[in-house]
């Protein structure tokens, strides 16, 4: 008899769709739980050598819910062997999916749209996807992480885990896409940093964010995903949301695109958000309001969307993204309103030409300075 585990590996390579079948079938999920028991595997593989057709039929019907018709004993033996190979292949799926911290029946990674994939590709092509990455355990990482942790109210367990964690930092006109150990995808904006462990432990999946980031969180209802910020925590249960730090006020804004999120100010109670709501956390207070999520979704997929936006605020966005400074010939021009979309990856020159066409103003670039004139 061939090695069942080797057979299972071959079957896994041929049929990756089985992973999806597990998520959709509770019976297979129960089987996966059984297969995590080494004694169970040993008993089942051993039973193949001393095959009892009647017991096998009952076992198959009970554990896998399969309809086994009467046939020759040799056919039943073959079918049961295939079942065990299938079971072993399910075990391999669990092992192969160890980059999640829990089994695949419990954790569902986010689905990336074609627009998101295209944005990621453009970011790579234009060398925007660049960050400083300090691996867990590096002395400089621990020193910087410790400084952030001292500003937060973390449990002892979380503080210990995040002290020796990876630190990713973006600067100026860069961004960074990353996949966390549980399958969560994070799009880190410029001038931001994220601290996360190489593997999540305990009851929560905890990270620290300073700056702005878009999160597409892997769903795991048993282990909430928590983003710690200076103004409070965002507790997510598998969804899509954006977090931004407002530099001039110190507030932290959370925009819920889909799913369920709870926001908790420091020394305050958690409040649940609904999709298309924005929560602002500042000084132990939370304010909620309805908002249009399309600008945030668009940012994640490669566009800046402005709706009745003051020109000075629009230029602040472009200056951060392109690492430039902006000078206005007079204060009145700052109040001009703009509505429209600008492709993040089309280049600064294209963006300035589009603004000039719409506003009738002159945008002149010399080095890293852009001057706005009548």
The tally of beta strands, per DSSP, is: 20
**Low-pLDDT windows of residues:** 42-105
Mean pLDDT rating: 81
Strand order of the largest sheet: 1-2-5-6-8-9-12-13
Distance between the termini: 84 Å
Q: Work out the helix count.
A: 12
Into which percentage range does the β-strand content fall? 25-35%
Outline, from the CA principal axes?
A: globular
Global structural class: alpha+beta
Helix content: 25-40%
| Largest sheet descriptor | 8 strands, mixed
**Whole-angstrom Rg:** 26 Å
What does this structure look like?
There is one protein chain. Helix 1 (4-14) crosses helix 6, helix 2 (18-24) packs across helix 3 and helix 5 crosses helix 6 (73-96). The longest helix has 24 residues, at 73-96. The chain is globular and about 70 Å long. With 374 residues, the protein is of the alpha+beta class. The chain has helices spanning 4-14, 18-24, 26-35, 38-47, 53-64, 73-96, 114-125, 139-149, 156-163, 294-300, 311-322, 348-359, and strands spanning 132-134, 166-169, 176-179, 185-188, 193-196, 205-210, 213-216, 225-229, 232-236, 240-245, 252-258, 261-265, 271-273, 277-282, 285-290, 303-310, 325-328, 337-343, 362-366, 369-373. Helices cover 36% and strands 27% of the residues. An 8-stranded mixed sheet has the order 1-2-5-6-8-9-12-13, covered by helices on one side. A 7-stranded antiparallel sheet has the order 3-4-7-10-11-14-15, covered by helices on one side. It has 12 helices and 20 strands.
């Amino acid at each position: 008899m061939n090695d069942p585990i080797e057979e299972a590996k071959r079957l896994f390579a041929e049929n990756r769709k089985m992973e999806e079948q597990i998520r959709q079938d509770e019976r297979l999920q129960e089987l996966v739980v059984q297969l995590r028991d080494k004694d169970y595997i040993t008993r089942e593989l051993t039973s193949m050598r001393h095959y009892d057709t009647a017991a096998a039929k009952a076992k198959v019907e009970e554990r896998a819910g399969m309809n086994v018709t009467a046939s020759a004993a040799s056919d039943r033996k073959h079918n049961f062997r295939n079942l065990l190979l299938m079971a072993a292949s399910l075990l391999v799926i669990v092992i192969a999916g160890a980059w999640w911290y829990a089994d695949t029946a419990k954790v569902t990674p986010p689905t990336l749209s074609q627009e998101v994939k295209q944005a990621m590709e453009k970011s790579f092509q234009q060398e925007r996807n660049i960050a400083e990455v300090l691996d867990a355990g590096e002395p400089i990482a621990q020193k910087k992480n410790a400084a952030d942790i001292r500003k937060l109210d973390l449990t002892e367990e979380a503080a210990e885990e995040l002290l020796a964690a990876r630190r990713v930092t973006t600067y100026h006109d860069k961004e960074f896409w990353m996949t966390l150990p549980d399958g969560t995808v994070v799009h880190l904006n410029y001038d931001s940093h994220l601290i996360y462990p190489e593997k999540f432990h305990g009851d929560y999946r905890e990270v620290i964010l300073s700056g702005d980031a878009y999160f597409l969180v892997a769903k795991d209802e048993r282990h909430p995903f928590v983003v710690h910020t200076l103004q409070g925590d965002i507790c997510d249960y598998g969804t899509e949301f954006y977090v931004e730090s407002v530099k001039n006020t110190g507030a932290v804004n959370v925009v819920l695109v889909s799913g369920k999120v709870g926001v908790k100010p420091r020394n305050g109670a958690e409040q649940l958000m609904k999709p298309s709501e924005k929560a602002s956390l500042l000084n132990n207070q939370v304010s909620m309001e309805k908002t249009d999520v399309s600008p945030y979704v668009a940012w994640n997929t490669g566009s800046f969307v402005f709706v009745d936006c003051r020109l000075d605020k629009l230029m602040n966005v472009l200056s951060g993204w392109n690492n430039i400074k902006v000078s206005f010939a007079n204060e009145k021009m700052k109040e001009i309103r703009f509505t429209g979309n600008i492709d993040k990856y089309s280049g600064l020159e294209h963006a300035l030409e589009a603004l000039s066409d719409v506003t009738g103003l002159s945008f002149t670039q010399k080095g890293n300075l852009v001057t706005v004139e009548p």
